[in-house]
Amino acid sequence: MDLQINSVLELIKNKKFKEAIFDLNKLVEEDKNNINYYHLRGISYLKLANFDLAINDFNHLLKLKPDFPDVYNNLGVLYFSNGENELAIQNFHKAIELKEDFQQAKNGLIKALCHKNSTTINNSNIFENHNEINKIKVEYSPYRFIEDNTIVNFLDKSIKAISKKFEKLEYQPTQIYRRDLMSLNCKRHKKIFNTHKIIPEFCFGCYKVQIEPENIIDLIKLYILFDNIYLSNIRKCMVELRSKIKGNYKGIIYCKSIEEAKKVQKKITNHMDHNFNKKIPIKIKRGCTEYGFEYPQYNNLEKNIMYYKSDWKNYENLIDNSLPHLAFNEKIQPTIKGSTLHDILVIRNWIYFAKLNGDEKFDLLTSQLFESNYIKKKISLKYS
Asked: So what's the pLDDT on residue 298?
């Protein structure tokens, strides 16, 4: 039996989920009370985006073993991907109750709370911190400069609000989104490009308004602006960790056409003229920067434009058929307004990034110092 389980684990490791399910069906028939079989089959169904069958297996397993934290975490991932955020939060929380140091479940819960207004669950530092941070406001006006001191005071209050239990939490995300229900499915597109060196069809209609703040303070000002401006477009703020790609700080607004990008660029420029006491570079670009390295013509916006090659669809189908969970378009709920625990943990990473890059504005934030081995490693790789 151990040999059969090892064989199934090897299939799952190699992303052969359909073959794993075929073998697990036989094993379940032989032993209907083996929790490992239901767990592995549920994971395989989850990877195939077959959520109903995954839920059936996970729920059946919990009847056999109600104190299985990994299953609650898997259910949290499943429900979050399917837009059922309340159920995701409940399951991530249950996983943490059963296993206090469950990092994956903590990360899942922190991420899910970006889409949840104030809530109360007893004896949960994560919920308490999320609610406390969300109450900390920045006085924003679309017609007034955002002062450096406003940002310093906001960060001082927000980072001090982080529980001591999270002071050394190695939280790796480095991007903060503001979004509605739309999902870009970038993991799928990048997997196709990295595997076959072709640009997915979706990405030929992806345009970005890219803003390039020159320092950490301006990046956080942009984050405040993105939180307060009305735009239906997905937008994010980030630090640049990719090798060979210029710039340290970026704000991105996603658009569906060059015409929409021009309108958004005009609108955001007007807002920034009121909120920043300097000019910050704003440009329109197409898709991911890596695409332009492989196909320079892809960077052309209005002349000599590159179009999708129809035979590339075969490569897209190969990925979609072998990795259905990537092809599945997540149904993520809209992000809430105001700062979240996730936001402040990410900003804490930004501050350490600023320190390692010698950002002159870091001196205003030295009281907020936090070290991240993840950021340190990424920066080392970026400049190696």
From this structure: 97
Nearest CA to 253 out of 264, 242, 245, 241 is that of 264
Q: Is 249 helix (H, G, I), strand (E, B) or coil?
A: strand
Task: Give pLDDT, residue 6.
Answer: 87
pLDDT at 3: 61
Buried b (16+ CB within 10 A) or exposed e, 123-161: ebebbbbbbbbbebebeeeeeeebebebbbebbebbbeb
What is the Cα–Cα distance from 222 to 224, expressed in whole angstroms?
Answer: 5
Contact 240, 230 (CB under 8 A): no
d(CA 112, CA 86): 9
Q: Which residue has the tokens 């006085």?
A: 139
pLDDT under 50: residue ranges of the chain: none
What are the sequence ranges of the domains in the chain?
A: 2-134, 175-335
**Where does the chain have alpha helices with state H?**
2-13, 17-30, 35-47, 51-64, 69-81, 85-98, 103-112, 125-134, 148-160, 186-196, 216-228, 258-275, 289-294, 313-322, 324-327, 341-356, 373-382
> What is the third-level CATH fold of 2-134?
1.25.40
Distance CA 318, CA 354 (A): 41
Q: Are strands 235-239 and 175-178 parallel, antiparallel or unpaired?
A: antiparallel
Reduced to 3 states (helix: H, G, I; strand: E, B; else coil), residue 366 is: helix
Q: How many residues does the chain have?
A: 384
- Going by the DSSP 8-state scheme, the letter that residue 281 receives in this structure is -
> pLDDT per residue over 79-117, tens digit each?
999 989 999 999 999 999 999 989 999 999 999 999 987
Question: In Å, how far are 208, 262, 275 from 282, measured between CA atoms?
Answer: 10, 11, 14
pTM above 0.85, yes or no: yes
For 120, the token pair is 């109360």
Which CATH architecture group holds 175-335? 2-Layer Sandwich (3.30)
Closest CA to 25 of 3, 46, 53: 53
